[in-house]
Amino acid sequence: MKNVPVVTAGIVAVSRDCFPAELSRKRRVKVVEECRAKNIPVVELQTLVENETDVLEALEELREKKVNALVLYLGNFGPEGPTTLLAKKFDGPVMLAAAAEETGKDLFDGRGDAYCGLLSASYNVGLRNLNVHIPRDPVGTASAVATMIREFIPVARVFIGLKKLKIFSFGPRPYDFLTCHAPIKPLYDIGVEIMENSELDMYDLYLSKKSDSRIKSVAADMAKELGKGNMYPDLLEPLAQFEIALLDFMEKNLGASKYAVFANKCWPSFEKYFGFVPCFINSRLATHGIPISCESDIYGALSEYICTCATEMPAAILDINNTVPQDMYDEARATVGSYSNNDLFMGFHCGNTSSACMASFSMKYQLIMHRLMEAGKEPKITRGTLEGQIRPGAMTIFRLQSTADAEMKAYVAEGEILNIDPKSFGCIAVFAVKEMARFYRYGLLEKRFPHHTAVAFDHSGRTLWDAMNLIGIKDLSFNRPAGTLYESEGAF
Hints:
The protein is an alpha/beta fold. The protein has helices at 21-37, 52-64, 80-89, 114-127, 142-163, 185-189, 199-208, 215-226, 236-253, 269-274, 279-287, 298-311, 326-331, 333-336, 367-373, 436-445, 461-470; strands at residues 9-14, 43-44, 69-74, 94-99, 139-140, 165-170, 193-197, 259-264, 292-293, 315-322, 344-349, 362-365, 383-389, 393-402, 408-418, 427-432, 452-456, 475-477.
């Protein structure tokens, strides 16, 4: 994908001066060998850190080898001061891991005490006010540490992406959708830039590309993507013009940032001036790792991008939209398996999901906007959605959101998209999340989350959870299993 970071993970071994340095060095070599055997990309740093001078040498080697994600490996007890100083000086995500003892036959010179040393390192992490990634089981064999590095890489990708991200928004958030409104101050707190623009700016950009020589080739690419679903061939060139305008704007205005997403107002005035709905363009850019959230939902765009970085797959923004009628549930008993109807909901949006994530699709018109703007008429200005059933399979719903008083919180829940005919319009599917009804009540409603959710088309809860911890989000919700109460859930 063009719009997500490439992680270059490097491993630096540390050693306390009263322990054998060679023990830490040999254990680092074994971790790297295990990484190669498991096809986990990692750069082995030769500097062994015992003191602050070594920290400076390690930083120079990290720069030379263009490492942007650091694994600090305690091959023995390790020097907590230099270890955490390196973590502080390094400009990127940091993971701490430690070596388990290898054999009961050598617990004199071969004993490293990294199990103890990691406690001291974690205390010093607190002294320096750092956020580092500590794996679920951070002390392990070389093979286990290699697996920790593999799990760290997508977490690091999210972290790096956010630190280099700019959100472009066009238009104020709609009055009827104040649910999407949230303070932008917390964006700066996590390193995200934002550039807000007006709808007039967007329209001016669009008009400026009217005679662009690329329009026909982009329209041809759209036609190829749509195939038999190309119901409105006459609409492709105006849509291509709009896509070119957004991408050119992004390239011109990235500035000090490296990655970008959009949060665009898409109704009600948009259609009257542009002559179409922008949903298909939102879909196409999502395919390339450039999410565009609807209704100026800046935290929706941010959440989509986090999902994209976590999975290296297109993400979507959908409404947690409606319940599944009981007769539909009864008809699909063979498909729903152990899920109750309370575990199900329908995820829907106007037509913005990447075609790569659809089971079937075609270009249609937006029914809700048509009711509002063209009631009783043939659709014209409300055309341009990509509609169909979202493909079945594993998924994760996720949202990072600021509260009205500028505190960040997030939720994550894994589940699946079921192969059930949704019998409705838009890009839509039946979603299943265990204990969804309770999660909806005591997670989403209780914490005041909006109706938009980002969808990752894979099980990525662990990566998303760890990434939120790494960037310092403390209020994290998940769908609690039956028998485990939420804080506000009554016991009676």
